Amino acid sequence: MQTVEVIDYIVQWLADYAQDSGLNGFVVGVSGGVDSAVTSVLCARTGKKVIALDMPIHQDQGQKALAAQHIQWLEKKYANVEGVETDLTASFTAIQRDLPLEIQDDLAMANTRSRLRMLALYAFASHYRLLVAGTGNRVEDFGVGFYTKYGDGGVDLSPIADLMKSQVYTFAREMKIIEGIVAADPTDGLFDDSRTDEGQLGASYAELEAAMAFEADSPGPEDEAELDARQRKVLGIYRRLNRANRHKMVPVPVCTIPEHLK
């Protein structure tokens, strides 16, 4: 991939989309992770208004520190960026209080955190006439579906969703993003602890990226036989997640009424 040229292409795509939409710029949820860091820089480079929004909810202190460092770096480098922190912990606690306790399992409440952040992003977007820029990469969005439906998946446009995770890291290094963000273990930040994406998925992004590429080649049994034990295990993880999360990657199904019944 021609990194510099692709960065310029995405920046122009973002600028054109905002211009055609008649909106002022972008709001990006900044988490302290590499995907949101890269997305926020791409948006900043358009020269349009950008709000870099940090939305902690019982957040790990390391994640909070990285998000704050990135926002400070952005504001110093780009005059069109405004960093904002809005702590949603109290709002999330109120939701916990109001929902029945028996439905508050780890996954349900992790997804609730993500959807609460989506609500905040769109409140800012509506007030300032901005677009919500998604931060998902291709492995997450179209491989394993590792995002929350109507949470971090609820966006207006997805500037890095055609980039593999490895390419996102290449972008980050080209953009001179803070090394602590590039070096940090990826995490969705949806739990009270600092559990990693790899711990949740059962495989690293590099492994899943390889499995995704392997699957794209329409392999046969003879191809799979050449894989080692770990590669076969990761391929199984990839296929299971892709199948289970397919509903996130396709349009919402519509029950179309036959003409003869109308």
- In whole angstroms, the N-to-C terminal distance is 52 Å
Rg calc: 19 Å
The major beta sheet can be summarized as: 4 strands, parallel
**What structural class do the secondary elements suggest?**
alpha/beta
Spatial strand sequence of the major β-sheet = 3-2-1-4
Bin the strand percentage. Answer: 5-15%
Identify the CATH class of the largest domain: Alpha Beta
Helix content range of the residues, please? 40-55%
Number of strands: 4
Number of domains: 2
* Topology as a string of helices (H) and strands (E): HEHEHEHHEHHHHHHHH
CATH-assigned homologous superfamily of the largest domain: HUPs
Which CATH-level-2 architecture of the largest domain?
Answer: 3-Layer(aba) Sandwich
- Average residue-wise pLDDT: 96
CATH topology of the largest domain: Rossmann fold
The number of helical elements comes to: 13
Task: Outline the low-pLDDT stretches.
Answer: none
